[in-house]
Design a protein that fits this description.
Elements: H1 15-38, E1 51-52, E2 55-56, H2 67-84, H3 86-91, H4 93-121
Antiparallel strand pairs: 1-2
């Protein structure tokens, strides 16, 4: 019988990752510095005015927006991302067996518990 061997990673094995990270960081710093140095530096009242699709802005841009809008947006993203986990489970349903089914029932229970909590708090009631 052959003894099992475990892979031994040396610090030098991570050198390509460190080099790639340094190159990416260097490019970002280089691009930020160069664009700051060669970018236009002329400012005027007309040039610095904010325009939206060629229409002059009117009023304050800091108009109050209902917190309900943000709550619904965050809840949509939260539950949408959780529902995305159902697809790989459905594709591998038979391979996961009973154990996978039990874990998905637990996951769905937690998901529905959170959804029930949101409904009970009245977050989705728009007045």
């Amino acid at each position: 019988m052959e003894p099992t061997t475990t892979a031994q990673y040396l610090p030098g094995d991570y050198l390509p990752i460190v080099i790639q990270f340094a190159a990416a960081l260097g490019f970002v710093v280089f691009a930020m510095v160069v664009t700051h140095l060669i970018g236009p530096k002329r400012h005027s009242k007309v040039k610095d005015a904010s325009w939206e699709c060629g229409i002059e802005s009117k009023g304050d841009a800091r108009a109050p927006i209902s917190i309900k809008y943000f709550l619904i947006a965050i809840l949509f993203v939260l539950f949408d991302v959780e529902v995305i986990f159902l697809y790989p489970w459905a594709v591998n349903f038979r391979a996961l067996g009973v154990d996978g089914f039990v874990w998905m029932i637990l996951f769905m229970g937690l998901l529905l518990t959170g959804f029930y909590y949101v409904l009970k708090k009245g977050v989705l009631k728009w007045e």
